[in-house]
Amino acid sequence: MARRRPKAAPTRKASPPVTSNSSADDRDAAIRRARSLFLDDTNAHGCAESAMVALASAFGLPDAEDSSAAMAFNGGIAYSGSTCGAITGAAVALGRLAGARVANHGEAKRTARKLTQALIASFDAEFGATTCRVLIGLDLATDAGHRAFIEGGVWRGACMRQVEFVVGSLAPLANESAWLERVRAVEADNA
């Protein structure tokens, strides 16, 4: 019996990358995009989704507005308090960018991992931790913890700063020369 081949997904046009006269403008535009998603009154996008969409948009990746790949990463992966959703959402965007820029799949994975490792190290240096539960001091898996998180505004303060940090750190990679420079730097650090 012949196996059916899955239908190819329709190709979608890539979002135009954030463009401006300077990488600082690109960075600021990506941060504004992340803020608009994260602080929207509908609460449609959590930390992981906001970081991923803002970066995918800045990078000009196809389907940049589709946040579904990062939905379960909010709250340290499904509210488990594990790795901060800003980091995991950014890792998804980095993987997609590496896949778009590096032809060899194995090399793309290696590059995405090294860039993500560097992000994790800088995040930890900035905030003193990388896990959601430690960063916010609450257990989002409980009703009381989640209620305190929302009502106390932790997400508008601490979480927003973390999303801004990862987006601001990585948005400049939309520029090809900044990308190459950063890749060379993480490769040299790991040599």
Walk me through the structure.
There is one protein chain. By secondary structure, this protein is mainly alpha-helical. It has one domain (23-189). Helix content is 60%, strand content 0%. The protein has 8 helices and no strands. The protein has helices at 23-38, 47-59, 85-101, 105-127, 132-136, 143-151, 154-170, 176-189. Helix 2 packs parallel to helix 3 and helix 3 (85-101) packs parallel to helix 7 (154-170). It is globular and about 45 Å long. The termini are far apart. Mean pLDDT is 88; it is low at 1-21.
Q: How many individual β-strands?
A: 0
> What is the count of helical runs?
8
Helix percentage range: 55-70%
Number of domains: 1
Biggest sheet details: none
How does the SSE layout of this entry go?
Elements (H helix, E strand, L loop, with lengths): L22 H16 L8 H13 L25 H17 L3 H23 L4 H5 L6 H9 L2 H17 L5 H14 L2
Essential attributes:
single chain, 191 residues, mainly alpha, disordered N terminus
Task: Give the structure's gist in a few sentences.
By secondary structure, this protein is mainly alpha-helical. It is built from eight helices and no strands.
